């Protein structure tokens, strides 16, 4: 059921994207006295959709390799309290990171 919900959500998002792109293209076409076909709007929507998916995947990968400030401080400080924090970092990451 979760896969169906995810697909339904993706379809709704893509439909909204198609509508938004269509509105923008129509406004520009009217302003410049041009004609945009539904195939052009559909192709542009597919292009933008694929770019969104690629950017989303890039952001997810970047987030997995971001170094937290707390890790840098724990690495460079020899204070005992910071050494204790170094032990706690994995549990802190589990609380705030969802990957």
TrEMBL record:
Q: What GO CC annotations are associated with the protein?
A: FANCM-MHF complex
- At the top level, the lineage of the source is Eukaryota
Q: Name one GO molecular function term.
A: protein heterodimerization activity
**What is the name listed in the Swiss-Prot or TrEMBL entry for this protein?**
Uncharacterized protein
């Amino acid at each position: 059921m979760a896969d169906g919900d995810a697909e339904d959500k993706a379809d709704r998002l893509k439909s909204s994207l198609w509508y938004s792109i269509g509105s923008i293209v129509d406004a520009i076409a009217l302003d410049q006295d041009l004609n945009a076909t539904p195939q052009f709007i559909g192709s542009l929507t597919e292009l933008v959709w694929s770019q969104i998916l690629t950017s989303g995947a890039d952001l997810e990968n970047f987030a997995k390799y971001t170094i937290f400030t707390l890790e840098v401080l724990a690495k460079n400080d020899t204070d005992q309290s910071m050494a204790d924090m170094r032990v706690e970092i994995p549990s802190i990451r589990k609380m705030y990171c969802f990957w």
